[in-house]
Amino acid sequence: MKKAIFVDRDGTIIIEPPVTEQIDSLEVLEFVPGAISGMKALMGLGYEIVMASNQDGLGTASFPEETFWPAHEKMLKTLEGEDVVFDDQLIDRSFPEEGLDTRKPGIGMFGKYLSGEYDLASCFVIGDRESDMQLARNLGAKGLKIDAEDYRGSWKAVVEAVRSTERSAVVARKTGETDIYVKVDLDGKGESSVDSGLKFFDHMLNQIVHHGGVSLELRCKGDLEVDEHHTMEDVGIALGEALAKALGGKVGIDRYGFVLPMDECRAICLMDFGGRSELVWDVEFTREYVGDVPTEMFKHFFKSMSDAMKCNLYVQARGENNHHIAESVFKAFARALRQAVKRNVFSYELPSSKGLL
Questions:
Q1: DSSP for 130-144?
Q2: Neighbours of 311 (CB within 10 A)
Q3: Are 284 and 298 in contact (CB under 8 A)?
Q4: Can you tell me whether residue 357 is helix, strand or coil?
Q5: pTM of the full predicted structure?
Q6: Using CA atoms, how far apart are residues 5 and 118, in angstroms rounded to an integer?
Q7: Which of 217, 181, 175, 222 minimizes the C-alpha distance to 198?
Q8: Taking the CB of residue 88, how many other CB atoms lie within 10 A of it?
Q9: By Cβ atoms counted within 10 A, which residue in 104, 110, 262, 326 is the most buried?
Q10: Do 44 and 83 meet the contact criterion of CB atoms below 8 Å apart?
Q11: Distance CA 231, CA 236 (A)
């Protein structure tokens, strides 16, 4: 289904004059700080960008057409110079006292977007007034408010809120050996749940959640009556695919790795989401099992995952306690992941001299 971002004009993109509340000349045209860079950051994310504005009495003696359009066209031309182009413009000309449903927060002028073609729950309304937030509720969309006391901070928060929705992915993988569901959100702060059927493996996977700063839902029903191999291998594949999918085009990410100490252990995890997969594993265990997991399977898990997420991974760990060795590896991986996928939402650069990852 289609998605749209509905953006208010006065007070959100351009500053609204405090007395007249009308931008009726080029002299009073002034952009809200952060609005141009914010709008630019919303382009190319798969949303239609729609301006929705109340212009009280536009076309009447109190607000003639000829005083409105020069400033409006100048605004559009300036935005176009920064590659910001509206897919649609909705302008209501009524006065508040008329009580027309076309006037925001009424939804009368949004008919095209109520046809069933748009996933309104995934749409956003950006505005500076409570009426804009009420419009969002009326549409069944998400409301994001611009604060006149902190324009730049508000626009930064708006961009982060919108762009974070593109960094999640779901992978379902079913074979004759395992049935796996994985949902990962790289910017998620919500509840996570992990159930692989192996308690110590779950404990390790939860380190990725807590230290990686991600949300993770993972369920696996595997043939543990055979052994642990298929479960850990296939979880590695599914989780790797989900992480790669959530990263998308990788624009603006940091890309690289981490080192971490834990008690008597030290673990190094060097990571590169460069599009190639390689695992260099230098971890020494002295026990066959930790909990219900064979220690030999940790290498196989990370190999399966690095292949699936097209990531170069170097892992080294030394220590005395095998539980600590395994945990330090997962924590180092989680911290490396957190650092590598960190993104500047206002950056449009791919971290590669090749121009491709």
A1: HHHHHHHHHHT-EEE
A2: 26
A3: no
A4: coil
A5: 0.65
A6: 11
A7: 222
A8: 13
A9: 326
A10: no
A11: 9
Amino acid making up residue 348: Y
Give all domains of the chain, ordered by start, each with its CATH number: 4-164 (3.40.50.1000), 168-341 (3.30.230.40)
Angle value at C-alpha 191, between 186 and 193, nearest 5 degrees:
90
**Reduced to 3 DSSP states, what percent helix, strand and coil does the chain have, rounded to the nearest 5?**
35, 25, 40
Q: What is the pLDDT along the chain (357 residues), one digit of tens a residue?
A: 899 999 999 999 999 887 666 787 888 899 999 999 999 989 878 899 999 999 999 999 989 999 999 999 999 999 999 999 999 999 999 999 999 999 999 999 999 999 999 999 999 999 999 999 999 999 999 999 999 999 999 999 999 888 766 688 899 999 999 999 999 998 877 678 999 999 999 999 999 999 988 999 999 999 999 999 999 999 999 999 999 988 876 666 666 666 666 678 889 999 888 888 999 999 999 999 999 999 999 999 999 999 999 988 999 999 999 999 999 999 999 999 988 888 766 655 655 555 555
Active site positions, annotated: 8, 10
